[in-house]
Write a structure and sequence with these properties.
Layout lengths: L15 E3 L33 E8 L7 H22 L12 E3 L11 H16 L3 E7 L14 E4 L2 E5 L17 H14 L65
Helix pairs in contact: 1-3
């Protein structure tokens, strides 16, 4: 197995956190860690240069996150990606390749208390070797804890990539038979829309932390419903906050480099 060591010279742009097959997957080991503070809420920097979406599945040694579970995770990711493409009428630029579980050889205590550190460690290890054009969407079988706090960070998404800490996502059971909008696919779609650049503070219904308030079934609502099955989920209701909104000077996810067309 090739061992990839994280690179810590640069910090990815700040990203948003929420309560939770597409490309080439690589096998990697993560051996070192650097202390980081808790990152702030969504504070989008300049536009990302990453233009190729790749999905990874990560799990530590000894995890029961087997091939069948990994396949279910990839299926949930496909649901989320397909829904976004259908809503926008656009297609993601997807990296070619195959599906494989990424093993993360570290003890569980390494992740306790700091989901941001977990994000940085996984994200940096992958992007250090796959090239600056890859936008990673990582489904990680990792549990972190805010020093015993009840609420756990489930997903972190921003202009440089998305990491879902699946062990933190209560109720987000991965199912190969899942249909949109399952709880897991909702969360993946939510974080991926953050990764595309939504929602900025200039949006009229912005909460100031990357979410919007005008529709409880908008994919970027801050509080994901317990179940959305049977509901019509929207991507930017009324097209006035983050997709094709037409507001001069306010970034639009339609301009993301991740779109192939």
């Amino acid at each position: 197995m090739e061992v990839l060591e994280p690179v810590w010279d640069e910090q990815p742009a700040a990203r948003s956190r929420t309560g939770w097959r597409v490309g080439a997957l690589v096998v990697l080991g993560l051996l070192a860690i650097a202390a980081t503070g808790v990152l702030p809420g969504l504070a989008m920097g300049g536009p990302s240069v990453r233009d190729t979406l790749v999905v990874y599945v990560a799990a530590p040694p000894g995890s029961d996150f087997d091939a069948l579970t990994a396949d279910a995770a990839l299926h949930e990711a496909d649901l989320a990606i397909g829904w976004i493409e259908a809503q926008t009428g656009r297609r993601f630029r997807r990296g070619p390749g195959f599906a494989e579980i990424v093993r993360v050889p570290v003890g569980p205590d390494s992740w306790v208390g700091d989901p941001d550190r977990a994000y940085l460690r996984i994200h940096e290890a992958i992007t250090a070797r796959v090239g600056p054009e890859v936008f990673p969407l990582v489904l990680a079988d990792i549990t972190t804890d805010h020093d015993g706090a009840v609420r756990r960070t489930c997903g972190i998404g921003g202009p440089d990539g998305v990491v879902l800490l699946l062990g933190n996502c209560a109720g987000d059971d991965l199912r190969r038979s899942a249909v949109w909008p399952s709880t897991a696919s909702w969360t993946i779609a939510h974080e991926l829309v953050h990764g595309l650049g939504a929602a900025r503070d200039c949006a009229p219904h912005s909460t100031g932390d990357g979410h919007v308030t005008d529709d409880p079934w908008d994919i970027l609502t801050a509080d994901r419903p317990a179940s959305a099955i049977g509901r019509v989920v929207t991507l930017d209701a009324d097209r006035d906050d983050y997709f094709e909104h037409g507001m001069p000077g306010c970034p639009d996810i339609a301009d993301s480099p991740l779109w192939a067309d």
